[in-house]
Design a protein that fits this description.
Helix content: under 10%
Number of strands: 37
Number of domains: 2
Strand order of the largest sheet: 1-3-5-7-9-11-13-16-19-22-25
Radius of gyration: 26 Å
Shape: elongated
Distance between the termini: 104 Å
Length: about 425
Amino acid sequence: MVKGDDYNGGAQMTFYNSATAGTGTTFSVTGGFGVYALGGTVWFGNSSCADHGTFETFRGDDSENGEVVFTDNATAGNGTFTNNGGEYRSDGRSQNGGETVFAFSATAGDGTFTNHGGAASGALGGRIYFLGSGKAGIAATAGNGFFTNNGGTVSGAKGGSVNFVANGADPTAADGTFINNAGTVSGAGGGGTLFSSHDAGNATLIANGGPGDGGFIHFTARAVVGTARVKVFGNGNLDLSRGGNNQPVTDTIGSIEGDGLVFLGNNNLAVGRNNLSTAFTGKIQDGGVYGGGMGGSLTKIGTGKLVLSHENFYSGSTTIKRGRLVVNNASGSGTGTGPVFVNGGALGGIGTIAGAVVVGNGSGSRALLVPGANATQPGKLSMQSGLTFNSDATYKIQITVPQVPRTRFSRTG
């Protein structure tokens, strides 16, 4: 056990110069228990590796948490890491959770990480930080790590979280998988992944719903970019809002799917950079947990198809640059209240569009209007505010031709 004490510096174990923790090793790292006490720390530096070790960090009181730190090209290897959330204290105050930190070109490797939510009102969950270094090109990466952020377990408790924090260089989510679960009871915070850096990488980002606050994925940096696959379910959410006073930015992701919530604030979400075809049956809207703002917009990029099957509530424009946007909502408007611009690619579906639709922009790019659910299912796409075709527009009609029974003739003689 690596343990903090009541008043002095916490205990520290250091791996350095390509050292490895070894297979089967187990580390329990606790926080301090005095007002100014430091927590215990396991430190990996200078290309050292956690290998297949097992690490568990615990809360501190008014002091530092137990933590595991990776820096200077160190890697989590295939280690297993659990950061516990804060709990209830006898004096009625809540505690912080344990944490793991990656900095200065460190990587999560192929590690497995779990951040538990807090177990007392006001208590923080376990946390992981990926940090920039202040120097271009030197920042931490999530590698191929698998991360689970659990929600709080009592009302008022916070969920576990993974945090990407820029400081000159942007740490990246790389090819990691991030599962963010909801609070387990009403009023409990959900687990989350937060980007104050610009690089969502090629990660898989999942926000699940539940009885408490939903799991969340929050973009707080200016213009987050990546090919990340985003999945939101129930009251789980993707939030781009950043607060209402920011200048609008464009966030770019690989794809969106599920039946959860997307909050745009006053920003633009560009979807399709990974060229996958996906369906989204949830709601896309202005606003957000940070106060949001109005005028959010959606841009379809990439060669894949995006199907929207729910009424949406964003007030900015919808722009199709590549691929196909299929609007299949049964009520309201599938593209919010703003105009729709088909600058390239195709617009189709059997739903309803409230805003004016403009097909083509005069640039010579091929822009298609193709009503119907797909190539074999023609249908009506309703437009409530007018339709304009420019010179490079094509209106493609899908027709179903009934089969006519064959008539056979025979001739004798």
